[in-house]
Amino acid sequence: MRKWVAVLLVAVVSVGILSFSITSSLASTKNELEIFSWWTGGGEEEGLNALIKLFHEQYPNVKVINATVAGGAGTNAKAVLKTRMLGGNPPDSFQVHAGMELIDTYVIPGMMRPITKYMKEWGAYDKFPKAILDMCSYKGNVYSVPVNVHRGNVVFYNKKIAAEIGMAKPPKTWKEFIRYLKLAKKHGYIGLALGDKNKWTALHLFEDIMLGKLGPKNYDGLWKNKVSFNNPAIKAALETMKEVLSYINTDHSAMTWQDATRLVFSGKALANVMGDWAEGYLKTLGWTPGKQFGWFAVPETSNAFMVVSDTFGLPKKAPHPKNALRWLKLLASVKAQDVFNPIKGSIPARLDADKSKYDVYLRWSMHDFATVTLCPSIIHGSAAPEGFVTQLNDVINRFVTKKDVAQAMKGILQDAEDNGYLTK
Amino acid sequence: MIGKHKVGLVVVLPSIVAIAIFVYGFISWTVRVSLSNYNSFSSLLRGVYRFVGLRNYYRIFSDWRFQTDLWNTLFFTLFFILGTIAMGIILALLIDSKLKGTRVFQNIFLFPMALAFVVTGTTWGWIFNPGDFPKDPMGINLLFKQVGLSHLQWGWYTTTGHIGPFNIALIPIIIAAVWQLSGYTMAMYLAGLRGIPNSIIEAAKVDGATPWQLFWKVKFPLLKPITLSAMIILGHISLKIFDLVYAMTGSGPDNVTDVPAVYMFELTFRANRYALGSSISIVMLIMVAVVVIPYLFYSMRQQKEVKL
After folding, report:
1. Pair A248, A192: CB distance under 8 Å
2. CA nearest A76 in B: which residue?
3. Do residue B46 and residue A400 have CB atoms under 8 angstroms apart?
4. N or C: which end of chain A has fewer CB within 10 A?
5. How far apart are the CA of B65 and the nearest CA of chain A, in angstroms?
6. What CATH number labels A154-306+379-418?
7. In total, how many domains does chain B have?
8. Per CATH, domain A26-150+308-376 is 3.40.190.10
9. How far A366 CA sits from the closest chain B CA (Å)?
10. pLDDT tens-digit profile of B228-286?
């Protein structure tokens, strides 16, 4: 008797589970929108929630599912997304860095729908700088909407220390900047704060130096297979970085990027090369831009803007394409961009934003965004596929310790060759 | 023979099927991927399988980073096992001497084992963070400075110093791991010590054995099976170590604290080089199998002997 009760119980439970899973997969025909991102920290989460609220005001009957995966720079989210895309179960729209991260991973294998005609319909197509839409394009079609833009090639510095060592205006060349770093060291401060426990910050520094030595046109040429990696400018960048490495903090490999920026905040280091999310961080620590800290473009790169941008695309197999397009239309509008960006601490990708909503640093960034050459960042997923980036990461990390220019150059050429770039 | 155990077999069958699919099936799949050219997301997507033989294995073994990983694993395993067993024996002997309060300390020594490696790694990472020593130290370096032993400050896991192929940056990680698992070996040795018949101890004392001789010539040989089993368990933990290293130090400058599991993780989930990552996991599997399988045969043989 008891045996039969047990069997019956198991049967009931299994039928229950089966029917639940069937109904939940059928549920995708409901009026929903699933957005996938890694915006879980600081101002990002609030910014995203503000966008979703804006979406609700326009489409109150759509249920928005905010699917996020925590982990800086989306390292975990990207892995989860790949699994879903491979399994034919994509979200309606997902956050992805502008450029190769999207193009190489999902557009080239044919998993994304082009949205050029929609952007033209919405009147948004000509409101973005052409260069940034080019980054999101493949063979003439745009595949994602850029929402926010961070600048990568910025130096943030402690104004008090700068005054003490006599740095009255921003250095224009690395030679000049290294002279100030040397002065800072003599006065007992760390010249340049670096925190490369998670490795990527070293490549972030290197790509900015490389941008300066190559100039924006040749830098862009590397990724378009017009310029060879076997270039004296890249060697010069390695030499400059080798010199700069004599003025960094000795415990750099134990620090994250926040720890390094904090060194500037606590008056221990003169400067930190970091994207302008560091500006947001300094503000949360209590500083005011322009008062306790100043900034300038990384020496020799004031004519270039290293773009780090988050965008949203439209997967071919999105379960609710109508809602996904509504979401993209919202993101491409100036109202949404002016709601999201002031909260996140980045600048809008559109050129017609309301400047009064942004602080003095962001206005400087917006001015440069509209006027100088835009360049794709390597470490932040825009310029090259992930395989290239991780290998280059390893080469630069070895270089930070070994300081062997010939060895690093060999590693860079090997990496470029492995990924189909010019090396002759 | 099977007829007698029909009911037992039916009960165990689901587990066998599950293990066949999720363990051995997936291992075979990993071997298959490691012999393929799936080294980018698009090649995986296209799904066109191209057999490339042992090329991926050749590539990782000639990779200086993987070679460093293997050396790091060797030295980490060596010192980790030595340290944990030594600490385990010392603690077990102390507890066994039945001084006051041994019950309390027995539990305290075992607590670290309940922590996740990530927690241990993060906390010990803070403790061993050297700071900008000597003028602005952190963690233990700061403690040294405050008690006047400033000259003892050193770079801990940020140093790239080495003695031959042994990277001394591994020392803080070894300390954290030994701290975590000494309680485990202590518990095993305690059980072993209590299993030694009192008559043998008494006989040795009557024969005039010193405490050292009592330990080294009487107790330790009788604890050999425990030592062996502890070495196997600890060995297979240290060969696969990932979360402790990843949370505490990452790969370190010039990969001084890199281990195969971290490299495999980066290759597979960051660089999308699935075939290379798979080949590293198979190498790790073989390393662990070399350690565990002989032990399994040995203990099965022992059980057979007991049955007879």
Report:
1. yes
2. B269
3. no
4. N
5. 9
6. 3.40.190.10
7. 1
8. yes
9. 32
10. 889 999 998 999 999 999 999 988 898 999 999 999 999 998 888 999 999 999 999 99
CATH number at residue B255: 1.10.3720.10
Taking alpha carbons only, the member of A412, A386, A403, A422 closest to residue A200 is A386
Chain A residues in contact with B266 (beta carbon < 8 A):
390
- Please check whether the two domains, A26-150+308-376 and A154-306+379-418, share a CATH topology: yes
Q: Do B271 and A197 touch (CB under 8 A)?
A: no
Domain that holds residue B265: 64-307
Whole-number Å distance between alpha carbons of A311 and A328? 10
Whether ipTM tops 0.90, in short, is no
pLDDT digits (tens, 9 = 90+) for A114-153: 999 999 999 999 999 999 999 999 999 999 999 999 999 9
Residue of chain A whose alpha carbon sits nearest to that of B276: A387
- CA of B289, closest CA in chain A: separation in Å? 29
Using alpha carbons, select from A62, A63, A106 the residue that is nearest to residue A84: A106
Q: How many residues does chain B have?
A: 308
A266 C-beta neighbours (distance < 10 Å), count? 10
Annotate B255-298 with DSSP letters as a single string: GTT--HHHHHHHHHHTS--HHHHHHHHHHHHHHHHHHHHHHHHH
pTM (2 decimals)?
Answer: 0.87
The 8-class DSSP code of residue A298 comes to P
DSSP string for residues in A78-111: HHHHHHHHHTT---SEEEEETTHHHIIIIITTT-
The answer as to whether B28 is a domain residue is: no
